Amino acid sequence: MKRKIKIVAVALSITMALGCLFACKKASxxxxxxxxxxxxxxxxxxHVDDSIAVANKYFLKDGKTDYKIVLPVNASDREVEAKEELxxxxxxxxxVTLSTVTDAGLxxxxxxxxxSIGETSLVSEAGVTVPYAEFGSDGYKIESRGDSVFLLGGxxxxxxxxxxxxxxxxxxxxxxxxxxxxYRENVREIPxxxxxxREIPDFAQRMLGLYEPQANYDYKTRxxxxxxxxxxxxxxxxxxxxxPKETYYDKHPDWYSPAGTQLCLTNEExxxxxxxxxxxxxxxLPNIKYMSLGAQDLNVFCECDNCKAAIAQxxxxxAVDMRFVNAVARDIKAWLDETxxxxxxxxxxxxxxxxxxxxxHKNEDGEWVPNDPSVVAEPNVAVQIAPxxxxxxxxxxxxxxxxxxxxxxxxxxxxxxxxxxxxxxxFWNYSVNFAQWGTMATHYREYYSAGATVLxxxxxxxxxxxxxxxxxxxxxxxxxxxxxxxxxxxxxxxxQHYYHExxxxxxxxxxxxxxxxxxxxxxxxxxxxxNCYVDVINADYWSKGFLDQCMRIFDKxxxxxxxxxxxxxxxxxxxxxxxxLSTTFLILNLYTAYYTTAQLTTMIDEFELYANMHGxxxxxxxxxxxxxIANLVAGWREKI
Length: 640
Ligand SMILES: [Zn+2]
Description:
Elements: E1 47-49, E2 52-60, E3 68-71, H1 77-94, E4 99-102, E5 114-117, H2 121-125, H3 132-135, E6 140-145, E7 148-153, H4 158-171, E8 174-177, E9 180-182, E10 190-194, E11 196-199, E12 205-209, H5 211-215, H6 217-222, E13 232-233, H7 239-242, H8 245-248, H9 268-284, E14 290-293, H10 305-314, H11 317-339, E15 346-351, E16 360-362, E17 368-370, E18 381-385, H12 402-411, E19 418-423, H13 440-449, E20 452-458, H14 469-481, H15 487-499, H16 503-523, H17 544-560, H18 566-590, H19 597-613, H20 629-639
Parallel strand pairs: 3-4, 3-5, 5-7, 12-20, 13-14, 14-15, 15-18, 18-19, 19-20
Antiparallel strand pairs: 1-11, 2-10, 6-7, 6-11, 8-9, 16-17
Helix pairs in contact: 1-4, 9-11, 10-11, 14-15, 15-16, 16-17, 17-18, 18-19, 19-20
Bound molecules: zinc ion.
């Protein structure tokens, strides 16, 4: 394992309107582990590795290599970045700096020893075929021809990601966190492999709503996720941004619902102005690929007579919404064909609140079918499902989450272009772990099986937290790539690599917490389910005995790292301490009577020190002074 070298900080800008959200049950075993009964779509064709070892051939032998990297003469920025990552980590593992040449004047032969990155001239010469349409933006292949190996993928990040996979095969490279990257060290010999790898992520676009990966370019890139909002205009609610009330309401009150809280989507005159405004936006935003056309963040729909009649005719408010979005998308498509032919732009309808229920129903054979041909999504229309009111302690395909299961299944009859905005934190309290551990992997499989191509999972997005941020970022990014992976196995692997000697103790903490939370959830159903807005600060839920048990486990973790070298000790101690603040938070809120003033002062000082060190700004989603860490700490001090 290695500390990371440079951190490229990128200003955080989650520009989307937020404020949605939430969290699931099922048969459990005696440890509280949820056992999945959901059988999803087979994803094995996305993740193929038929590479085989070849005897007596080497990439590296006695610390030397004959291999050179080959880049296209006009390499793209991404191809250059891919090369740089390969050179850097290969060197760290082996001490050898791979040299790089361009493809100018090179030719392929069975004996040539090249690592070809991206679309070099050698690719076609060697007969490597590239199914770019299948790869999408981020899929890739790694293939051998003769003694050379070819790494290449989709135009987005595919080629870059192929390098990380290649490094994993050569030196066991694995990225766990921005400051925890594993690879073998002092490697002197790497046998040649005949590569036959094909990787296509289960979700074409993957976005983590977690603070640090969003803020740090290297972090999100090496986790193989995109920054939220990259390539998007508006993340969700956009109607009043496109047609502001300040500008239009006085002259055209009928463009809005009678209460003035939403647009009136059956008003054709309004729609024409809406299209004109969208054209202006599209022209001014040349790099966006998605534009959300979503209603305001209120659980109401236009209640005018025309809208009521349209809902009665087409079955659901979402049908009226889809007819509107389709009409806008058709107009913009016709205009783009004239003005910017070939521009790739998708309009995203929002399935949320009034439009969560899909414009589809089950026929006599039990298959979902669209309510009307006019609600079937145009090719340039996607639907974003945001299951704010799902119970994330349960799988979706259970009676508790019928509405969400119906949304996923019904919408997939209307479009094969589904995007999902999912939730994975209690937004009223980031300091307590969100107990979605037994169900998250299944949720991702349910999204994938419904045909979702984009997944954004909103957790503690506006601040670092004390609820396993680094572990969640790793595990979720892995599951977004391959939904067949096991949540618990990924956690176990992460704990060993991230906490080193304290890995067993921290995995014990995870398991004890998980099983305790499953227990209180069953004791206080609904209240303690993984729910995005729930007040969990209550002594009924968190026994003093349990919190003491957690503290004893942290003591074990500290003891386990005692023999680490000083720098490593400091790093590991801080990592453990950050997670322990979740327990400290509950003690300082619920059990101060058990401690002396001096003990409490020490706990508060420590909480403040490490929270500040970790850059934690807020303990809940609302970024106002009253929920700042400074205010929280001041309140505790006042009480003692
Ligand atoms: Zn209306």
